[in-house]
Amino acid sequence: MKIRDGKVEIVTGDITTFAVDAIVNAANSSLLGGGGVDGAIHRAAGPLLYEACRKLKGCATGDAKITPGFQLPAKYVIHTVGPIWKDGNRGEDEKLASCYRRCFEIMVAEGLKTIAFPAISTGAYGFPMERATRIALEETHKFLETNPPIEKIIFVCYNDRAYKCYIEAAADILIK
Ligand code: ADP
To answer: Using 50, 70 and 90 to split pLDDT, how confident is the model at 148?
Structure first.
């Protein structure tokens, strides 16, 4: 589904196959690999990605760091560390929002035009999908209000439930 004159797209698929300027990795704070989307990205990018991540010396929760995409179709990977969900009262929302803001900041700083996000924190880190998608789209809405020099923001859903959550959140937040 395309929204905001095609600037935002919600699709299902595997983020490792997207030929965009940057795909976002939902990493852990060591940046040294994990399961889920991180494992898939490292497998598809090849061993040089691990070497590049090792040099970054980790990443704080809510922050993001960029590497090349190596063997991926994407030019870059922006690694961000989402919060681990506890009960919703430990600053989880703000930390997740910060992940999206930092990825957008890096995107603009590096002159990147197209970016694809997975649903950060909603896998092993247990963030409720509905709440996470609303935060993702609220930060996207705020970012787009600043008229950034970008072309496309893609939300890649790994399953139909995630897709449904994004579409419902988009109806409230992006389609006004
Ligand atoms: P986190 O530790 O931040 O929760 P996960 O990788 O466990 O990260 O999950 C984040 C989200 O990414 C989940 O919604 C999961 O279904 C999704 N995901 C897993 N693999 C892929 C993939 N190849 N492409 C897109 N999304 C994926």
So the answer is: very high
